Amino acid sequence: MGRSYFVEEAVGQYLSDFSTKPKACVTGLLIGQCSPQRDYVILAIRTPPREEQNESNKNYHPTSADVDEEWVTAHASQLSRMLPGGLLVLGVFIIAAPQLAKDIQNALRKLVFSVEKSVVKKRLWKFTEEEVSDRVALHICSATKKILCRTYDMHDPKSSPKPADWKYQSGLSAFWLSLECTINVNIHIPLSATSVSYELEKNTRNGLTRWAKQIEEGVFLINGQAKEDDAELLEGQKKSSRGNIQHFNVKVLTQLSQSSGHRSTATVQVCSGSINLKGAVKCRAYIHNNKPKIKDAIQALKRDIINTLSDRCEILFEDLLINEAPDKKNSEREYHALPHRVFASIAGSNVMLCDYKFGDETAGEIQESFFEMLDQVVHGEAIHIAEEINTVDINPPVNNTDDMQQIQLTKATLLSKLQQNMGVVIAAAVAIFAVVFSFNYFSD
Fold it and tell me: How many helices (H) and strands (E) does the chain have?
């Protein structure tokens, strides 16, 4: 028996609106949520055309032989930053003419595995063995509108496709549940003297990995109460009115130090500097209303906490490398602003997507970027941006020629990789990340 995918009706309308040329195809991503009983698809997003395609032919669609796997996976990687806790890239779709049917299945198989690899690459958490490992590959014939829905097991690259049901449903996410919390962050990441030439991004990621483990082991209080993992989230709750998402306030308690049952020793380390993350992180997760368990809701929120801080740091490093002044002296102290997290309402769903903006981005730029990434128009009233100044203090060490050459080489390598990717940073509404991100360097 294959898996069942319950799909928002607006997704069906979106897919049917594509007008494809003969011998051409349209690719895209499917966004939703997995559960043990069934999976939910609340959004379908076409792969944005490359700039050169826009310039040469706005109605261009590639043939199956020309499906741009690299571009699709780059889109998936960027889009995964926009998903709050509980939402995932569930798979891919291709809309193609009948004569391309034989080639499409091979293209879909390659795409679904490449997309999954792309979105999990930089995560600081791992899926559990109990979680659903299937991802969907959807083929729609542009002439007959016939749908072929199959799944592949991401744990097995050689897995055979399994048939799955594709069922449309109205108001799929109308009663979904929302969990929200604010996390106070105070992370100190020392930089050893032997790691001067390492990328700051790599050191930051190592520090965030240790912090992520603390979040994973934390205690989560839902509406002020600690509940059993296997209890139902809606137990004792009143039903919300139609069309309104029910919200839960969550407090997170993390362990300050190891328990007395564990022995620990102090480590003396010669450091060249440190990275300090301080501030308040506002997080959000969504979960279906089909008897969700406490453990599933908390897990979704945990992953959002970890993702949002990791994504902000990654976006900041990308911005610093791309926009670094060529005549900048590495000994100069600098101040930077971290991107803010914002949320926006999406047509056809009560669930909100998120992204990050820097302070100098205008509302018009946000709307334009949103359209490029989601293929949807987001109106100004759906965007609520909370402005707040958050600084990054960089106090570099005394120049060391060999070390600085290595750093410049590392930056050049990363920059060349970034230029090959999409690099689209979008933003839209409702939450704010109040963080002070400081780099304090010092030398002996």
Answer: 8, 17
